């Protein structure tokens, strides 16, 4: 009966290679935007794979998928593990997907051990694929995990619109996610997520496993300058109110003011939407998505205020009107220290020397931790720190290390939880 552990169902490389093909184009990485046809295909493979391994598949109204192993019985507490299967446009194969699939493999192996009488569960286990973690097609990011944790009302989430006006609810319905199905597991006692680092800290420290203490905070602003559409030829220069010129000045002033006063904050203006976007029409509306990231919320407040001053100056200098469409602070998370200690100890027992570190990026584990669900985030190295790019890569030995530690942590939590410690 021991061969159950090595059945192809829990072979991480096989299932990972299968998922890597969905939404892939040669040289362009993987594009599986949330609630797209490609995301639907990935969800279907995940559900079929887990169902074949004996899991009960349910999904909630925002499309979060739960592969449930109810081996401890109804009424028992839950442990969750997972991540997300959506990607950025032309993204990498590992970001998110690895965390879901490694958790799936660990759950299948653990289930076999339980069925063979080699493990005795006190907790049920669900492998979770959270909807729209990336925030590429719909903002805010971390949508599914924020809905589950109660921070975002699900009606608000379903009403989010993408760049073409399609709501998340309609996009999900188009891939067959139309309302919740089945008994959704309750809030878990703990959540564990394995993710690639998307930075160079682990590689530079020569470590394979990172245990995340917490994350940076992020302030995300969506800013629109509103001018007036006019012919680019005959309209006298003095009459023009050019929203793109305002946005250009706003972007340059933002970088200058933050670089001068808060140089260690990570910052970007990474998306620009111009309307009507014709070479012959002075731009009427220009919308820019700005981000500031740092550890200190008070500093992000000051930097954000300085940015707003710069945006207003760009508006008044160009005769345009400024509209702040969104300005949201994601507070820094401190991950659960007791759970961190369990991950650290378990990783050591597997022969690794983990590095305690902070994550600059947000992850689903952060959304859950911020809502009071004790959560752990485990990192493995990314070659050259490349992320959100087709060249994203993690060496097989590092994937194996992460898989080993995640499986060991879940084996421990499912047999005794962590409050019981
Ligand atoms: Zn991710």
Describe the secondary structure blueprint for this structure.
Layout: H1 12-20, H2 37-52, E1 56-59, E2 65-69, E3 78-83, H3 97-115, E4 124-129, H4 143-149, H5 154-159, H6 168-174, E5 190-196, H7 201-205, E6 210-215, E7 217-226, H8 243-261, E8 266-275, E9 285-294, H9 297-318, E10 321-330, H10 337-349, E11 355-359, H11 364-370, E12 375-380, H12 396-414
Parallel strand pairs: 3-4, 3-5, 5-12, 6-11
Antiparallel strand pairs: 1-2, 2-4, 6-12, 7-9, 7-10, 8-9
The structure holds zinc ion.
Describe the model.
The protein is α/β, with parallel strands linked by helices and 421 residues long. It has 2 domains: 298 residues, Aminopeptidase (3-Layer(aba) Sandwich), CATH 3.40.630; 114 residues, Alpha-Beta Plaits (2-Layer Sandwich), CATH 3.30.70.360. The protein has 12 helices and 12 strands. Strands 1-2-4-3-5-12-6-11 form an 8-stranded mixed β-sheet, with helices on both faces. Helix 3 packs across helix 12, helix 4 runs parallel beside helix 11 and helix 10 crosses helix 12. The two termini are 30 Å apart. Zinc ion (ZN) binds next to loops.
């Amino acid at each position: 009966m021991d061969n159950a552990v090595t059945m192809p169902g829990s072979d991480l490389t096989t299932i990972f290679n299968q998922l890597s093909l969905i939404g892939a184009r040669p040289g362009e990485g993987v594009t599986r935007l949330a609630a797209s046809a490609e995301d639907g295909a990935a969800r279907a493979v995940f559900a079929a794979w887990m169902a074949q391994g004996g899991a009960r598949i349910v999904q909630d109204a925002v499309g979060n998928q739960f592969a449930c192993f109810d081996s401890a019985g109804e009424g028992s507490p839950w442990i969750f593990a997972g991540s997300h299967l959506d990607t950025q446009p032309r993204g990498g194969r590992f970001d998110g997907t690895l965390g879901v699939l490694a958790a799936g493999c660990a759950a299948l192996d653990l289930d076999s051990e339980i069925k063979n009488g080699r493990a005795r569960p006190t907790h049920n286990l669900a492998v979770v694929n959270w909807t729209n973690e990336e925030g590429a097609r719909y903002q805010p990011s971390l949508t599914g995990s924020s809905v589950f944790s109660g921070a975002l009302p699900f009606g608000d989430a379903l009403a989010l619109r993408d760049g073409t006006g399609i709501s998340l609810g309609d996009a999900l319905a188009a891939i067959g996610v139309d309302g919740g199905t089945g008994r959704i597991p309750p809030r878990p006692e703990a959540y564990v997520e394995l993710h690639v680092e998307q930075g160079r800290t682990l590689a530079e420290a020569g470590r394979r496993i990172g245990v995340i203490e917490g994350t940076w905070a992020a302030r995300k602003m969506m800013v629109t300058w509103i001018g007036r559409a006019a012919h680019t030829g005959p309209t006298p220069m003095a009459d023009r109110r050019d929203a793109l010129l305002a946005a250009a000045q706003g972007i340059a002033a933002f970088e200058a003011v933050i670089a001068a006063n808060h140089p260690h904050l990570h910052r970007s203006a990474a998306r620009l939407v111009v309307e009507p976007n014709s070479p012959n029409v002075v731009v009427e509306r220009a919308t820019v998505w700005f981000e500031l990231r740092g550890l200190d919320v008070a500093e992000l407040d000051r930097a954000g205020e300085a940015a707003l001053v710069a945006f207003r100056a760009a508006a008044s200098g160009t005769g345009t009107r400024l509209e702040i469409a969104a300005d949201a602070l994601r507070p820094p998370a401190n991950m659960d220290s007791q759970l961190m200690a369990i991950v650290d100890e378990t990783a050591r027992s597997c022969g690794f020397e983990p590095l305690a570190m902070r994550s600059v990026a947000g992850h689903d584990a952060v959304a859950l931790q911020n809502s009071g669900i004790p959560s752990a985030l485990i990192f493995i190295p990314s070659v050259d720190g490349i992320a959100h790019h087709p060249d994203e890569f993690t060496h097989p030995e590092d994937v194996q290390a992460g898989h080993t530690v995640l499986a060991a942590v879940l084996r421990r939590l499912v047999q005794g939880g962590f409050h019981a410690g």
